[in-house]
Design a protein that fits this description.
Blueprint (H helix, E strand, L loop, with lengths): L8 H8 L7 H8 L7 E4 L3 E5 L9 E5 L11 H22 L3 E6 L15 E6 L6 H5 L9 H11 L1
Antiparallel strand pairs: 1-2, 2-3, 3-5, 4-5
Length: 159
Amino acid sequence: MNRLWAPWRMQYIQTCDNTNNGCFLCEAAAAGVGIEKLTLYCDNLTVVVMNLFPYNNGHLLVAPRRHIGGLNDLTADELLAMGEVTRQAVGWLDYVYHPHGYNIGLNLGRVAGAGLPGHLHTHIVPRWNGDSNFMPILGETKVVSESLQEGWRRLREAI
């Protein structure tokens, strides 16, 4: 049996079902823009955070500041703000990373893949032609080639 060690995943696994932990999106919004919480942007209605466990370089989360779990809980202003900030974030990613495409979407509920079902958030995942290498094909593992701190710095410069 082949083994691929990814000890950094344990932090995610241990906190995934722990309801005693605070909400990282609320904590990021409260802290404001800064590398400590990987918060790239905040306004009165939204917050943009880099994903601590990214699918790809530049994987961002756009969330309402208010701790709500469903689309129907959003006000019209929050929904509009999330759409506008998502559009802006794609522009930041275009400028910094020049991806060839994006996956943008919501995971609503734990069964749908939401790691934080209590706080609605949109994923923005940049994609590139040819970004697959042997790791996802043979090892079912994704290689992320830039540190979160370096990505945060580059995106903040773009903002």
